[in-house]
Specification:
Helix content: 10-25%
Distance between the termini: 39 Å
Largest sheet: 5 strands, antiparallel
Structural class: mainly beta
Radius of gyration: 25 Å
């Protein structure tokens, strides 16, 4: 059987939604808006790129929920998946204003998939860019174990603590599948058999 069928690992096209496509959001945002689309043309502040939603609240924290559709064929053959949360601007990643680590609590963000916590990120170090504390939040996050195979829609929820900002421009799922296909040798044999069959049929019709 191994001579006839081979297994192919395949990086599937990414599945993504812009930040502004958020299904549910609780946030005070920034500059008087939560999403870039909150502003009239020409009036959008520079900290809003066209796809941005800003998660931020001074008191109770904030959250956003996105629904991403994984096609059935991908779900069927899925063997791995990572999540990326992208910010266009360098200073827009997960961050919070400087605070006293001795007296203030550690601030955080949470990422959940299909109701299960995938990561809780403590913001405990100065950001490599700028003066705030922060994290380079664009890293790939392994989420394969949190995929719900009973449905195509996968829910991503992102929560931030009070006084934490996260400017989100895109949510991306990156699937990898493992599929089976005929080997070149098997395709050649199948083609030869099909040609022979077609030739036999044509010969019978000639009579």
């Amino acid at each position: 059987m191994a001579l006839l069928i081979r297994k192919i690992w395949q990086i599937e096209p990414p599945i993504s939604q812009e930040g502004i496509a958020v299904r549910e959001v609780k946030s005070k945002g920034s500059s008087g808006g939560v999403k870039a689309t909150d502003f009239l043309p020409g009036q959008r502040p520079e900290n809003f790129t066209p796809s941005t939603v800003i998660l931020h609240d001074d008191h109770d924290g904030s959250h956003g929920i996105w629904d991403l559709l994984v096609p059935e064929p991908v779900l069927k053959y899925l063997v791995d998946m990572t999540l990326r949360i992208e910010s266009v601007r360098t200073h827009a990643m997960l961050h919070t204003p400087p605070y006293d680590r001795e007296t203030d609590k550690r601030r955080y963000a949470r990422i959940s998939m299909n109701g299960e916590l995938t990561d809780k990120i403590l913001i405990i170090k100065p950001h490599p860019h700028g003066e705030d504390f922060g994290v380079d939040s664009r890293r790939p996050i392994p989420v394969y174990r949190f995929v719900d195979r009973t449905k195509s829609i996968q829910e991503i929820k992102i929560e931030v603590d009070e006084k934490v900002y996260w400017d989100i421009d895109r949510i991306i799922l990156e699937p990898i599948t493992l599929r089976e296909e005929l080997t070149p040798e098997a395709r050649m044999v199948a083609g030869a058999l099909l040609s022979a069959f077609a030739g036999g049929v044509m010969g019978l019709l000639a009579f």
